Amino acid sequence: MKPVVFTKLSVMMLLEYFVWGAWYVTMGTYMSEFLKSSGLQIGAAYSALAIATMISPFFIGLVADRYFAAQRIMGVLHLVGAALLFYATTITSNSTFYWIILIYSLLYMPTIALSNSIAFQQMTDPGKQFPWIRVFGTIGWIVAGILIGTLGIEKTPSTFHMAAIASGLLGLISFILPHTPPKDNPENTKASSALGAEAFVLFKDRPYLIFFIAAILVCIPLSFYYGFANLFLNEVGVNNAAGKMILGQVSEGIFILAIPFLFNSIGVKKMLLLGMAAWILRYIFFAFGNADVNLWMLYAGIVLHGICYDFFFVTGYMYTEKKAGAKIKNAAQGLFTFATYGVGMFIGTWFSGFTADYYKLEGAYQWKQIWFVPAFIAVAVVIYFLLFFKEKKEVKSA
To answer: Distance (Å, rounded) from C-alpha 130 to C-alpha 37?
Structure first.
């Protein structure tokens, strides 16, 4: 890969995830501060991305891949998205804000797949080259958190403005990215292909079906973290909460390096159980942590994000690929994403919002009780997984 192409792709990934990290992490805090939103309204706003995750495969498979060059449609989506992010900060109604975020999410989520498509098109050895490009996405998310903390804009509309500027910049840059023409493959333009229906055959394999159900269920505690962790940390008095939350992305980058070795040495079941156990521990730390003598618990809960996410979801993607084999691996990964970040997160965001409101007393969130709920759910998923998941250490295709 030529250095100029590598540079363009790296900047693309950095800005792609910078945009996401700039507004997503602090949205709950913004809504609470400026819109006086309830927990259910915050959960609903976060569910917008889950809805977009379920819809975007159809957009990519049925429209973008067939009729448009990937870099051009990504440019248009980011430019329109930038305008929507600016407009969102002028809204004073929770219901209107929800619809703006939903429309924005429907524009943003397809750009994840489009950016990956643009990158893969330029690679001769994706297995070796893609991680070096994708790591800039994690760096972009971290940079967004650092800037929010450094500029002191965590509780202001400026987080959306910063995301909008980056989105507009990426929109313009997209038009000079390497040309990625539309695919001319009728098989990939069917609705069933977009959903990953070919991978339904995996459900005949009992261990994978048990894992698949667990993956959807574990998205419920995940939703609590994404939707309410920043608001929680701010309310308990943690300074520069967004800046400190980037430690989660740092740990994610560190722990992901260990996964290829552990996957083969300790087996998929232990890997997945470690990930789920980390969810329990995280929420116990959050329940009993504070900004005083137990500040270390809050830091530990943040840093555990690397194990929580990598050991379950990254391992889950690897497990899915092993089970699927070469023929249906793309469909299987699409189905796994649809089920987790789509269906699972949709259920989780609404449930977390309902829970937050249920444990709100005289206008104040009862955080200990709130964090016990995802901890108990994670315990239930672990018990279910221990009882029913029977997989050999060496995973074979279904």
So the answer is: 40
